[in-house]
Each structure stands twice: as structure tokens, then as C-alpha cells.
Amino acid sequence: MRLTAALLSIAALAAFAPVARAQESDAQIKARILERVRERLTEEKKVILERMSKVIDEELAGGARKDPAGGGGKTTDKRVRDLERKLQALDDQRDDLQRDIRGIKRETEDAKIIEDAKKSGPTSSQEAGEEFQEYFQVHNEATKEIETDKAKGAKTFEKSIAGFKRLYYALKDNADAKSLYVPSAYNVACGYALSGKSTEAIDWLEIAISAGFTDYDHIAKDTDFVSIRKERRYLRLLADR
Q1: For 145-173, how does the pLDDT look when each residue is reduced to its tens digit (9 = 90+)?
Q2: Would you tell me which of 38, 184, 193, 206 could form a disulfide with 168, CB atoms 3.0–4.6 Å apart?
Q3: Same domain, 89 and 155
Q4: Using CA atoms, how far apart are residues 180 and 21, in angstroms rounded to an integer?
């Protein structure tokens, strides 16, 4: 059973959504579907871990017996490594699925910012550039504040993050504005990391990379990401780059 099989349940759950539309908003329907998906994921994760535990026990017990060629120890090591790789792959699949679920939730959480970006976002490169500088200044202020007052700094980061999100959502479909919406997504990641929100930071770092941010040396050296450098997903992002 693959963890990503749980995604198949979304279609089935969504099929019942129209029945409830008279009583529920789209956001409520989405929340109900996501809750059912989370329940399914929890159950499937439990089943997978139980199966893998059984497989490990069986493999270790079988590998403890030397093979006719006298290479029992090496065979056992290889089996263990193979199982560890399989477990790593399952962890990666779980991370990817959880990220995708958060992406669906983010559409609702950022709905007001997205609507504002579409209605009153910058209409020229000059306006976009001015907004970017404005939010970057707020970001720098928050970076200084958080060193002495974490609560105040976190509040200021909320403003810069909202601003950079506004720019990203307003410009992300305009190829000519790539030089602004890509660093906007990157700065959202930086703001979240400095605010201590590692999950959101890595989500937005992935968004920035998907949008076209390719300076991996800069990412690796960026002190804004000190708090997330040991996170599995961060290390996975930079692996083989």
C-alpha cells in the first residue's frame, strides 16, 4: 500500500460535496473533506508502519542465518539498508502529501490576500518595484526587532509576509515579472523561518524554487534559514543540487 493512495479518497469525498452546498460554504466543505483525508492518512500510516516493522523483523531474523557462501553478515547489512531506503521513501511520500494538503488549506487561509492581489495589485513594474522595496524595508525592521522583542518582531513579520504574498499572487502568472514574484516567495520563506515557523518556511521555499529560484548556494548560506537547516525537508530540497 502506498501512502499516496489516500489521495484517491479525495475524489470520492468531493462527490458528496454538492449535496451539502445548500447548508455549507465552499470553505466548510473543503475543511470537512480535508478532515476525512487526514483521518484516512493516519490510519494508512499506522498500517504501513506495522507492515514495515513486521518486514524488518522477518528480514533481520532471516539475515541472521549465514548463507551457503558464508556472506550472511553482508547480506543482512544490505537487507537493512534496503529497508531503510524504503522507509525513507515512505517518509518522503508522507511529507509530499502533507505539503499538498497544506497547499489546499493555504488557498483558503490566503483567500483575502489573493482577492486583494487580483483587485488592487500593482499594474506596472514601477508600482511592483516600489511595493517590493516597501515590504523589504518592513522585513528588515522585523529582523532587527525579533532580536530584542520576539513578539513585536513576529507581528512585524506578519506584515511583510502578507505584503510579499500579495506581490507573489498578483504577479506569479506574469512571466515578465519573474524578477519580483520569485524573490517575493523567497522572502515569505525567510520571514516564516525568522518567525520560528519552520513548516511554512520550507513550504514557501519550495514555492520559490518551483517558481524559478535556483541560487542554491545562497539558500545554503542564508542566515535567515539557520532555524531550519536540520529539518529533513530542507536537507532534501538541497540534496543533489
Answers
A1: 999 999 999 999 999 999 999 999 999 99
A2: 184
A3: no
A4: 38
* The total number of structural domains that make up the chain: 2
**99 and 181 co-located in one domain:** no
Specify if 77 maps to a domain: yes
88 shares a domain with 138: no
Selection from 201, 182, 184 nearest residue 192 by Cα:
201
For 12, the grid coordinates are: 470520492
Work out the angle at residue 105's Cα, subtended by the Cα atoms of residues 89 and 123, and round it to the nearest 5 degrees.
115
- Domain range spanning residue 24? 3-109
CA distance 193 to 219: 12
Cα separation, 241 vs 237, whole angstroms = 8
Cα distance between residue 231 and residue 235, in whole Å? 6
In whole angstroms, what is the distance from residue 238 CA to residue 219 CA?
8
pTM of structure: 0.72
**Binning pLDDT at 50, 70 and 90, where does residue 92 land?**
confident
